[in-house]
């Protein structure tokens, strides 16, 4: 404090002509006024920190600092400039029993966001036993909301009760708002019941609380509105906005329309941006986008908030292209976009995979100097992830030091979309390690990653984590656990999870069926379908696809025909995925003519159907027809994808058409700009290997990245064994053991290669290596019944 006094005195010694002239001219204003009025005028017109300190110094030397009136103005000025220590020092020097002074200081601290100081002063005020009125109670409650201090707020409520303020409508509304913010509607309701004279403000506070908490409380908002009208209290604009929010929560379109009609009749909300934006939000959530667009089009003043609501609406309705068009229109009309607008623009580009436009929005954020918040970072991470730019996405992710579950989920989804399951699991581990609580999306994503990795050990650990944190009660999570066990080969564990699900939905039944089919237990899948039908549950196209795969495994052509007939009876003949599955089933059951007939008369406009039919020809070794179909596809202007080339190359490999296969492989890049992936390289290596051109195949494999070479090396190793090329086989075997140390089939192939060439010691060493790692060869089975 002595140091602070010294600073004030030193300011008087500084010779600043400009400040001095300004100070003197203001001081001479109203020369007939008293000293107190002069200094009060100076403080009211103070716009500079240095000038404020000169005034303070002058008050100090003239011994006017003890004046309660001037002291309160001085404290308010320091608060206005954010000088907390100085304001506290001045206030402590002039502490008085004047409650008005305490209230003005409390309000000042609240307005600059110094909520902790508000609560500190409130406690000091109680200790001084000066008394309380509604103002410190109200602003203390608001500060508790901002700080998340529920217990402190309950203490303030006790004080309000002691001083008899709980029946006051102003304090009561603040208490209702406090409890509502903490989602304690029981507490809010008790406060509401204690208020004797309820006016529109009290009713609106309670209705707003119910609307914001949502859920079943949204119904109570409408019940309270009815009670309000019975007491002849008409709703105002704020009431109607809250009721619209409740209607949107319940997706009660008819009720919202009644509110809209009432507002038009009473002339409420006309040309009011907040009310009109609330109307737009209501119609968007009720999926009546045309009405929202109509309201938006009629708005006289379109603010950034209303543009954001409209853009968000198009995004939520799955129309990212229209949302992006609205974003560009907003910019064209010189409405300055905020971070929410730019985040929405990034999300549009993410859904559309418009990398160039997304990078342009990112560049705009950098140019205008916006400080990226967690919402905008999340949107940009999603945009780069969906555009397959994971390096940029990860850099942005790492920039954000404070991350929430949503940002972690977006990063995990990005890795999953790009088939990087290991990295997705690492992100989840990091999330838990930093103390961020996972949500349902996090759990579903990490289970999906573990399913892709077929990591049963980590999957069991994750199941334990889910049980400890009680996520297993959610049906979606239980379905994903079931799927994870099925994909990892632990089908009995999957069945136990299925049996434990209390409320099984269609996905639960279908997931279990798919698990059985995936593990080759076709009979169990068919039996489960029959149980599902007995329980009165209807099926969908995914269920039928699983059923067809089961029939394919069992070789039941008659049952497959029954599904075909059912499609026509149920008017599902345009369900393309089921038709494609039926084509594959007919092909696998040897009825290529039926598969061809189905293709020709149903879904020729769908790329997947062309791929399915090409694969069917390849399955039967009819490569000539597969190539003819590929030519027809090109003439029909249907652009092939990666799966098309995989099917054609497989067909060429099975038929031994090496030159045709190489020609197709080359045209991937030259004609369609498709970069070959692991499967394509494996097909072309298999093609060359079957033709005995091992050196060419090996030269191709050596230029591949390690991640893409495993499948191709497996094919080449099998060819080396078939053609007796031991030297190359040993080199490839060693590479594969380094790449896939957990794959038992690799050890089996390498061991067999050594054994066939009389190298028994090496073969035994490889078998022992596999045994030490706990690896076992998958047990074979036959679908042929033994009589």
TrEMBL record:
One of its GO terms (biological process) is RNA modification. Gene3D superfamilies: Tetratricopeptide repeat domain. Keywords: Repeat. It comes from the Eukaryota. It holds the Pfam family PPR_2. The keyword Cell membrane does not apply. PPR repeats lie at residues 98-132, 199-235, 303-337, 404-438, 505-539, 606-640, 641-671, 743-777. GO terms for molecular function: mRNA binding. InterPro entries: E_motif (IPR046848), PPR_At4g14850-like_plant (IPR046960), PPR_rpt (IPR002885), TPR-like_helical_dom_sf (IPR011990). This is Pentacotripeptide-repeat region of PRORP domain-containing protein. It comes from Corchorus olitorius.
């Amino acid at each position: 404090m002595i140091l602070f006094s010294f600073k004030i005195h030193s300011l008087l010694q500084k010779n600043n002509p400009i400040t001095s002239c300004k100070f003197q001219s203001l001081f001479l204003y109203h020369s007939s006024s008293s000293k107190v009025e002069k200094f009060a005028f100076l403080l009211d017109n103070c716009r500079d920190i240095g000038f404020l300190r000169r005034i303070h110094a002058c008050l100090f030397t003239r011994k006017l600092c003890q004046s309660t009136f001037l002291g309160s103005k001085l404290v308010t000025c320091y608060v206005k400039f954010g000088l907390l220590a100085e304001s506290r020092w001045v206030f402590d020097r002039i502490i008085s029993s004047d409650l008005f002074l305490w209230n003005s200081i409390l309000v000042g601290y609240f307005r600059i966001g110094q909520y902790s100081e508000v609560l500190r002063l409130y406690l000091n005020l109680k200790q001084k036993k000066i008394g309380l009125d509604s103002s410190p109670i109200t602003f203390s409650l608001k500060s508790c909301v901002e700080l998340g201090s529920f217990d402190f707020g309950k203490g303030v409520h006790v004080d309000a009760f002691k001083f008899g303020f709980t029946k006051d409508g102003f304090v009561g509304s603040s208490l209702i708002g406090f409890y509502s913010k903490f989602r304690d509607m029981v507490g809010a309701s008790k406060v509401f019941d204690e208020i004797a004279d309820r006016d529109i403000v009290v009713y609106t506070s309670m209705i707003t609380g119910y609307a914001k908490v949502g859920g079943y409380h949204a119904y109570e908002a409408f019940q309270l509105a009815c009670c309000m009208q019975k007491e002849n209290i008409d709703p105002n604009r704020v009431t109607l906005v809250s009721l619209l929010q409740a209607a949107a929560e319940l997706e009660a379109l008819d009720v919202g329309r009644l509110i809209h009609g009432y507002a038009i009749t009473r002339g409420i909300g006309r040309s009011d941006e907040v009310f009109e934006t609330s109307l737009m939000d209501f119609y968007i959530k009720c999926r009546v986008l045309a009405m929202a667009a109509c309201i938006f089009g009629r708005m006289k003043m379109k603010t950034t908030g209303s543009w954001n609501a409209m853009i968000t609406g198009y995004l939520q309705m799955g129309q990212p292209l229209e949302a992006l068009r609205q974003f560009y229109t907003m910019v064209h009309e010189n409405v300055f976009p905020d971070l929410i607008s730019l985040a929405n623009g990034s999300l549009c580009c993410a859904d559309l995979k418009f990398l160039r436009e997304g990078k342009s929005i990112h560049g705009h954020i950098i140019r205008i100097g916006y400080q990226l918040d967690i919402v905008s970072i999340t949107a940009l991470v999603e945009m780069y992830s969906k555009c397959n730019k994971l390096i940029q996405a990860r850099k942005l992710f790492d920039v954000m030091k404070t991350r929430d579950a949503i940002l972690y989920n977006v990063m995990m989804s990005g890795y999953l979309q790009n088939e990087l399951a290991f990295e997705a699991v690492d992100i989840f581990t990091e999330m838990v390690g930093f103390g961020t609580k996972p949500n349902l999306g996090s759990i579903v994503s990490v289970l999906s990653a573990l399913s892709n990795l077929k990591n049963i050990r980590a999957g069991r650990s994750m199941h334990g984590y889910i049980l400890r944190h009680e996520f297993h009660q959610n049906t979606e999570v239980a379905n994903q656990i079931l799927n994870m066990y099925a994909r990892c080969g632990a089908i009995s564990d999957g069945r136990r999870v299925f049996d434990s699900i209390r409320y099984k939905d269609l996905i639960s039944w279908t997931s279990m069926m798919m698990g059985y089919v995936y593990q080759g237990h076709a009979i169990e899948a068919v039996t489960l379908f029959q149980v599902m039908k007995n329980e009165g549950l209807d099926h969908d196209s995914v269920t039928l696809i699983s059923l067809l795969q089961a029939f394919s495994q069992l070789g039941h052509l008659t049952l497959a025909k029954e599904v075909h007939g059912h499609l026509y009876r149920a008017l599902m003949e345009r369900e393309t995925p089921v038709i494609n599955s039926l084509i594959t089933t007919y092909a696998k059951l040897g009825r290529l003519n039926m598969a061809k007939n189905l293709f020709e008369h149903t879904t020729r406009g769908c790329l997947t159907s062309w791929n399915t039919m090409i694969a069917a020809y390849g399955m039967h070794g009819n490569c000539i027809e597969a190539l003819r179909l590929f030519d027809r596809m090109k003439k029909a202007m249907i652009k092939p994808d990666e799966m098309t080339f995989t099917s054609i190359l497989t067909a060429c490999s099975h038929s031994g058409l090496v030159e045709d296969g190489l020609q197709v492989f080359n045209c991937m890049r030259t004609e369609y700009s498709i970069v070959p992936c692991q499967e394509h390289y494996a097909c072309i290596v298999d093609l060359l290997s079957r033709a005995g051109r091992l050196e060419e195949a090996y030269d191709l494999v050596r230029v591949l990245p390690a991640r893409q070479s495993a499948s191709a090396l497996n094919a080449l190793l099998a060819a080396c064994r078939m053609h007796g090329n031991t030297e190359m086989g040993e080199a490839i075997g060693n590479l594969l053991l380094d790449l896939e140390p957990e794959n038992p089939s690799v050890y089996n192939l390498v061991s067999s290669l050594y054994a066939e060439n009389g190298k028994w010691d090496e073969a035994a060493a490889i078998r022992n290596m596999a045994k030490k790692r706990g690896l076992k060869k998958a047990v074979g089975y036959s679908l042929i019944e033994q009589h």
